[in-house]
Description:
Layout: H1 11-20, H2 34-38, E1 54-66, E2 71-82, E3 87-92, E4 96-102, E5 109-110, E6 113-115, E7 126-131, E8 138-144, E9 152-155, E10 164-167, E11 187-195, E12 201-204, E13 217-227, E14 233-236, E15 239-242, E16 247-251, H3 256-262, H4 266-277, E17 285-289, E18 298-299, E19 304-307, H5 320-327, E20 335-337, H6 344-362, H7 364-386, H8 411-428, H9 430-443, E21 447-449, H10 451-463, H11 472-477, H12 494-504, E22 513-523, E23 526-536, H13 545-554, H14 561-571, H15 578-590, H16 597-606, H17 610-621, H18 627-637, H19 643-656
Parallel strand pairs: 1-11, 16-17, 17-19, 20-21
Antiparallel strand pairs: 1-2, 2-8, 3-7, 4-5, 4-8, 6-7, 9-10, 10-14, 11-13, 12-14, 15-16, 18-19, 22-23
Helix pairs in contact: 4-5, 4-6, 5-6, 6-7, 6-8, 7-8, 7-13, 8-9, 9-10, 12-13, 13-15, 15-17, 17-19
Amino acid sequence: MKNLGSYRLNNHWVAILLLLGVSCKTERRSTPNFTNGIGLTIIDPHSYANFKEIQTKHLSLELDINFKNKTIYGVARHTVINRKARKAIFDIHGPLIRKVTTGPKNQEKEVDFIIGKMDKDSILGQPLIVSISPETKYINIYYQTTQQCAAIEWINTKSKENPWMYTQGQAILARSWIPIQDAPSNRFTYDATVKVQPGLLALMSASNPKTSNKSGKYYFKMDKPIPSYLIALTAGNIVYHPYSDQCGIYAHPEIIDKAKEEFSALPKMIASIEQIFGPYAWGNYDVLVQHPSFPFGGMENPKLTFVSPSIVAGDKSLVSVIAHELAHSWSGNLVTNETWNDFWLNEGFTVYLEHRIMEALYGKAQSLLLSEIEMSELVEEMKTIKSSKHPEDAALCLNLKNRNPDDGMTSIAYVKGAYFLKTLEHKVGQKKMDAFLKDYFKAFQYTSISTKNFVKYLNEKLLLPNYVDFNLNEWIYQYDLPSNCFTEPSALLQQVNYLANATNSGIDVFAPKQKFKWVEKKKRRRIIRKKVWYTEQLNPKIYNTQQWIIYLRQLNPTLTKRALDRIERYNHFSEANSELQFEWFMLNLKCNNWSIAPKIEKFLSATGRRKFVEPLFTLVLRDSNRLGWAKRVFDATKNNYHSVTQQAIHALFQKYH
C-alpha cells in the first residue's frame, strides 16, 4: 500500500483525514473512538460500507492461490451502482491493499485510498475509503491476503500431492479475504478466475468444474445475486461423484467412496423439498466433504455446500445436516436476513424446513426425535443466556451493535425460531402454512428481509386473512419460550427413557440375562412341559444414533467409573460416530472419569468442528487441575482448527484462567 506522503490528496481528503484520525497503514491495534468517528451504516451495524451512496452490483475476482506462501494474490473488480458518491467505503480485515484503480479493465486509473484504524474490539476490521468521482462505475482493488485473514484455512501447504485450502465467510469474515461491502443486505452477482497448482481442483460457490486440469486455471460464474458471506473458495486433491445431472458429491479420493454412499439420498431430499416449497432455484446442488478442520457441520454456500467429514458416519445417521444445508437454498440463500440481528430468519426457517425433509424421507417419529434433541439443547442454552450479561439474547430479534455477530449464532435463532414456525403451523394448519412459505420465498427471492418486514408480510398474508390471533411480539421480542409453544413427543423416545431411568437406578440394562420359558412337547400321547433356559441381551443396534444421544444426555453425572466402563463394554461409544463419541466424552467428564482423557485427546486432534471442540474444552477447563492437560492438547491440535474454533478456545482459556 502507498505511503501517505505519495497520495495526491486534495483538500476534501485532508479534511476527512483530520476529522477521522485515520491511518494510511493497516492498523490492527485497538482505537476506542474510531468506530464512532467514521460511523457505521444505518443499514447494517457490522459494516462500514456506504450502501446508500454506492453499492456493488457485480464482482469479478482474479485470484492466484499460492500454497507455498499461504497467500492469495487477488484483484477484486467491483461494478457499482453509483448515486453521485465521491467516496466508496469497503470492509477489510487483514488483506494488504496494494493499489486501487477506477475504470474498466485495461483502462484503469490509479486513485487515492485511505485505510482507517481498527474498530474498538477488532471485530469489524477497517474501512477502506476510496476516492472516486460521481461518474465512477468500476473500482478495482489489488490486494494480497496475510496471516491475519481469518476466513482462510491452509492445510499441508508443503505437500505436492495433498495441499488443501478453504474459506469460511459467515458471518463477517468475507472481508478478511476479499475487500468488499460485507453485509447480508448487499447482494450481487460474481465471477472469478482462479489459478492454483496444476493438478489440483478449485471450487467456488458457483458453477463448478467436475475434474481438475493440467493448467490449474478455472473460471467460475454465479449469475444469481448473493450476499458476500456466501462467497466460498476451496482447492485441493478433490474428485467428484454424480448422483444425477443436478447433484453430486465432491471429496478427497480417500473418502469419496464412503461419502457417495453416505449421502445417496440427496436426490430424494431435493425432490421432497421442491414438492412442498417450490423449485430449486440455483441449478446444480453439490456437496463437498471438507477437511476435518472445518469448524461447522455444514455451510450452505450456493451450489456447493461444505460439510464436515464428521457427518460421514457410515450408517447415514447424520444426514440431517445435509437436509439442513439443502433447506438453506430457500431460507438463507434465496431469502436472507437483512442484518445479523435478524439471523433467526435464516436459521429458524431452515431448521423447520430440515425437519419437513426428514419427515418426508424418514418418517414423523424420526423428525420429532430430532426436534426433541434440539429442544433439550434450547432449554439448556436459554438458562445459560439468562444468567449471562446479555439475557436479551434469548429473544429472536437481537441488537448486536458493537458486538460480534457470532454472539447471535445460538440455538435461540435455530430452535426457538423453528418452534415459532411449528407453533404457527399448528395454529393455521400445515396446508396454509406451506402455501404461505411458498409465496414468501417467491415474493422475496434474491433479496434480504428484516424482522420488521417479515412480521408485516406475515400479518398481511397469513394471520389477518385467516383471522388468526398469534402472540408475535412475545415470540420475537421477549426472552422466554412462550407457553403456547407446540411440541410433540416422539414414539421413539419411550424405550430409551426407560433404559436411562434404569441405568440411573443402578440396573445393568446391557448385561446378559438368563431367562427361561416353558416348552410343551408331545411324547407318547402325553404333553410334557419342559423348562428351557436361554440368554437374552439388549442389542444396541435396534436403536439409532438420536435415541442413544437422548439416552446419554439423561444419565446422571454421578455414575461411577465401573458403571461407565460397563456401558462402554457393550456399546463402544468411544468408537462410534462423531456425535455419539462427543456425547460419551461429555458424560465421562461430567462424571469425573478422567481415565477417558487419552480418547478425548485423540478425538480433539481428529476434528476441528466447534460444536464438539468448544464444549469439551469448557468442561476440562472448569477443573483447574486440568489446565496443564488442556494447554498441552490445544497446543498440539490448534493447527488442525480453523480460526473460528481457535478463537473460541482462546476465549475459554481467558475466561477460566
